Structures are given as C-alpha cells and as structure tokens.
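Changelog excerpt: complex records now keep ligands as SMILES alongside chain sequences, and the structure block spans every component. Example after the change:
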Amino acid sequence: MPREPMIELKGLRKSFGDQVLYDGLDLQVFPGETLVIMGGSGSGKSTLLRILMGHLPYDEGSVLIHSHELQDFSRRELNAWRLIVGVLFQTGALFNSMSLRENLALPVREHTDLPEELIQIMIKIYLQLVGLRESIDRMPSELSGGMKKRGGLARALMMQPRMLFYDEPTAGLDPVSSAQIAQLILDLKKKMDVTSIVITHDMKAAFEVADRMALLAGKRFHLIGTPEEFRTSKDPLVRQFVDGLLEGPLSPQSDQQAYEADLLHRDTD
Ligand SMILES: Nc1ncnc2c1ncn2[C@@H]1O[C@H](COP(=O)(O)OP(=O)(O)OP(=O)(O)O)[C@@H](O)[C@H]1O
Ligand SMILES: [Mg+2]
C-alpha cells in the first residue's frame, strides 16, 4: 500500500476568538482510501473541510497537500487544488434557479473549454451514474432531498475529481436513500479510484464505506483506526458515539450546569 499521504495534518490549531476548536489535530489521508470523520455537532467537522479547501485560515500547525503547506499556496496552486477536489457541502448542493442539466454544465463551462456536445454527454453519463438521468430538466425544487444530494454529487463528478469530500451525505434521508448514497460512495471509489473524506453521524453508512475512521472529540482526534478497531474499542467515548448511547463522556453535563447558572444569573466558577 502506498504510504505517501495525499493530505496530512500536523498539530493543527484553530480558534474562533477565545473558543478553541482544534488543539492539535494530526491526521493522514492516503491515496485511494475512504476516510470517515465522525464527531458531535459543533466539534468542527465542516470547518475542517473549509480549511482543507483553503477557504479558512488556520492558526498553527500544518496542512500538507502532497507535502506542501496549504497556507503557502499561490492563488494558482490553490485554484488547481480546488479543481481536483469535488465537495458535497452539508447544505446547498445545487443552485435553485437552474435545472439539474444547467447545474451540472456550469462548472465545466466555467473551468474548461470542452465542446458543448461533450458536456451534454458527460451530464447524461453522470446523471445515469447517480440514477437521475430522467430528471435532467427538473429544477432543484422538483427534487427530493436525496435526489438533490445525488445531483450535487453528479455535479462534483463533472470535474473528474481525484478527491471527494462529503459533508453529511446521508443526513435527513430515509434508510433506502442513505443506502443508495453509501453504495454510490463505494462505486465511485471503485470506478474512479478517488480518495474520499466522508463526514457523517450515520454509523450504518460509516461502517459501510470506511477504510479507516477518525473520531473528532475534545478538540482532537480521539481515535483514528480501522472500522474493526472502532467496533471493538472499549473506550467509553468511542462506545458512546458508535452505539449512540445517551449517557457517557459526550453527555453535556457541563452545559447543564452552565444552563442552570444562566437561568439563575449565577457565575459558573
Ligand atoms: N466563521 C466562524 N466564526 C466563528 N465560529 C465559527 C465559524 N465557523 C464555525 N464556527 C464554530 O465552530 C464550531 C464548529 O462548527 P462546524 O460547522 O465545523 O461543526 P460541525 O462539527 O460540522 O457540526 P454539525 O455536526 O452540526 O454540522 C461551532 O461552534 C461553530 O459555531
Ligand atoms: Mg457540519
């Protein structure tokens, strides 16, 4: 297995004002793998994707893309990096004012000079791949949530990405649509040999697609390992997250104290 990481985080630190979000993140993403990132709401999963896309600066540590520091990228290098990564954002996968066909054509028209006939063929190929060829001329408002997610994925694929970042690809979907998305993630890995980062709370989908998993908790990666290591871990925090337990280290007891103090106008400490 090639051991040269595509992406590497070393001691990454990031704060918003006095809120420390990451207190030293270390992570490697290897070519061809699907890495699932899990973590509670607000733990900083989406923010990490924004940092990886160069949309948000970091405070300390390194984000290395093929061993080059992301924060030192020139404008040209940054654009080149963004072009090889397809991102499926948590919200707003498609432009609402355009049909699915126009949504898919847009990035290709903008970034390449491929002939229009070829673009139209690609649109059909990728819509077929995600099961939406028959909806080609529908507007996003005429699509279900799951169809929109698949449409967003088809649009990302139009640029032939080498990496795909998925932010909560199955959130809000019924179990069948979730299973379809998980299957698509697996198919894309096989057919297009992409490297993927999948952010999800959906443990079923996570175990279906992951080669490796990482749990973001307490401002760091609490555990990075194989699905098997997550399944068999006895760590209470990992168990609480993977088994979806109400009681455990992730339970917001300190929040509860702060809430009561707030109600009673009392200082917490
Ligand atoms: N630009 C910003 N300015 C200030 N705080 C921010 C900013 N962006 C994100 N945050 C804060 O960073 C924290 C992490 O946000 P993020 O969206 O990364 O969480 P998440 O893990 O993706 O959560 P969810 O599972 O709910 O999507 C939150 O507390 C959020 O308020
Ligand atoms: Mg998020």
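The longest strand covers residues 19-29. Residues 45-46, 90, 167 surround magnesium ion (ligand 2) (CB under 6 Å).
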